[in-house]
Amino acid sequence: MMRKTTRRTMRNLAALALILTAGTALAHGPTPQKVSQTVTIRAKPDAVWKVVGDFGGIAAWHPDVAKAEWTGGNAEGATRKVTLKSGGTLVEGLDEWKGPEHTYTYRMSDPDLTALPVSSYSATLTVTPDGDGSKVEWMGRFYRGDTGNEPPENLSDAAGREAMDRYFGDGLKGLKAQVEGGPTQ
Amino acid sequence: MTGRVRLLALLVLLSAGPAAAGGVSVVSQQGARVTRIEAGGAAGAVAVPRAPAAVAADAGGRLYLSHPDGRAVSVVSPDGGVRPLSLAAQPFGIAAEPDGSRIYVGDWSGNRVLALSADGAVLGEARTGPDPAHLVLGPPGRLYVAEREGRSVGVIDTGTMRRVGGFPVGDGPFALAYDPARGRLYVANVRSDDVTAIDTRAGRVLATVPAGASPYGIAVTPDGARVIVSDQHAAKVSVIDAQSLAVTATVPVGPYPEGVAISGGFAYVANWFSDDVSVIDLATGRETRRIPVAEGPRGLATAPDAPEASR
Q1: Residue A149 Cα, gap to closest chain B Cα (Å)
Q2: Residue A60 domain-assigned?
C-alpha cells in the first residue's frame, strides 16, 4: 500500500517535472518503440469491422475506455477524445480510414502522461480474414514519456512498452468478447 | 564528378571493404547494426554501439552515426572498424564534410549544433531553434537544420558556426534533402503532412507540397528531377516532380517507412516496423524487392562512390 502510494507520488512528480520543462513533453523523441498486438475472432471481417471500424466508437468495445467524444466522422482529420477509466485523456486525430479495406490509422495529438506514459504515438488497426473468422492487428510506433537522455523509470522505453502493450491488448480482448458475445470484462 | 573524387571512388572500390561499390548503408536502431545493401540484396553488416539513429557518409566511405541515448557519435570506417566518440549531448541529426575533416551533430535536447573534428574534439557550436532534427550540408559553408518544434529550418554558417538565418516551414520539420544543381532544399514536415521546397539562392520558399501522412524521410534524385518522400503513416512513398512541385506518383512500401536514399537508379526505403528495406526501381516506379535487415531500420546513407551519389 505504502509502496503503491510512493510510486504514484513519484509518477506525479515526474509528470509535473516534465510539464514544467515545457516543450520537452511535446518533443518527438529520438528513439521510437514498437507496439503490436493481435487477436483472432470467430466472426467475419465485416462483422468485426461493424464494431471496431468507427473511429469514434472505441468506448463500445475497449474495456479501459470510459467514454469517447468524436467529431468529423471517419474522414481524414476527424478527432476523438478518449477518456480512460483509470483517468487521463487521449486526444487522437484520424490520418487515414479505409472502410473497404477494414483499416484505419491515427496519431496522438497531445501527450497526457496520466493516460499513457508516452510522449507521442501513431497506430493502425486492421481487420483481415483468418480462416472462417478474422484477425485484428493493432500496431503502432511511440516514444517514451520522457525523451531526454535519462528518463525516470516510469517514463522509460520499458514503461511505455508495457503500457502500450497492455492498452492495445486489453482493447483487443474486449473487442473479441464484444463480437463473440462473451462477457466484456 | 571531379578527377579527384573519381580517383577516390576507385580507391574505395579497390579497397573492397563492407562499404565498397555503390548501394546504400542502412542503420538499424534496435538491432545496432549497419547493413550494406545493393539493389540485389544485403552485402554485409557491421555491429555498432547501442541504438544508432541517424547516419551520414563522407566521400571516403566512412559512416557517421548518432546515438541519442548513448551520448555518442560513432565512426565506421570502410574496413568495418568502429570508433566511438563520446559527446556531452543528445546527438541526433548528423552530417559530415566530404573530406571527413568535420562532423556536424545536432543536440536534440540542447538546441544546438556542434562541429566536431575527425577525432571528436568540439570545434564550435551554433544555437538553433527548438529540437534540432536532421541536418544537411548545402552549398560550401552552409548547413541546414530542421528545427522540429520551431516550424523552421535554421541556416548555419559553418565557418563561424553561427545561425545566420532561417526559413519558415510547415509543422514538425524533420528530414531534409538538398539538390545542389538547383540550390534547392526540401523539408519534410511531419505534422502538417507536407514538403516545403526552398530556393536557397533566392532565399525564399517556393512551394508547400501536400505529401501523404507524416512525411518522415526525403531524398532527391541525382539529376534533381524527382523528390522521394516516405509517408510514415500510410506505408508508401510519394514522388514529387521538381518542376511542377506536385506529387505525381505514390508507391506502396512496408509499414512505417522512414529514411530514403537513392543510388544507381533505385530508391531505398527503410521500413522501420517490418525490419526491411524496400527497393524501388525509379524507371518503372515499382517496388522490386524487400531486403531484410536488423531490427528498427531508420536512416540510410548513399555510398559516396556511386557516380550518382546524392546527400
Answers
A1: 6
A2: yes
What CATH number is given to the structural domain containing A158? 3.30.530.20
Tell me which residues of chain A, numbers 61 to 120, contact chain B at a CB-CB cutoff of 8 Å: 95-96, 105, 107
pLDDT of residue B233: 87
Q: Which of A110, A141, A157 to mutate to test the interface with B (most CBs of B within 10 A)?
A: A141
- The angle formed by the CA atoms of residues B195, B197 and B202, to the nearest 5 degrees, is 160
The reply to whether ipTM tops 0.85 is no
Residue B4: pLDDT over 70: no
Q: What does residue B254 show for φ and ψ, rounded to 5 degrees?
A: -80, 180
The domain in which residue A116 lies consists of: 2-180
Nearest residue of A to residue B93, measured between CA atoms: A30
Give me the residue from A29, A34, A107 closest to B273, CB to CB.
Answer: A34
Residue B22's pLDDT is 64
Number of domains in chain A: 1
Domains of chain B: 3-302 (2.130.10.10)
DSSP assignment letter at B293: -
In a domain, A142, yes or no: yes
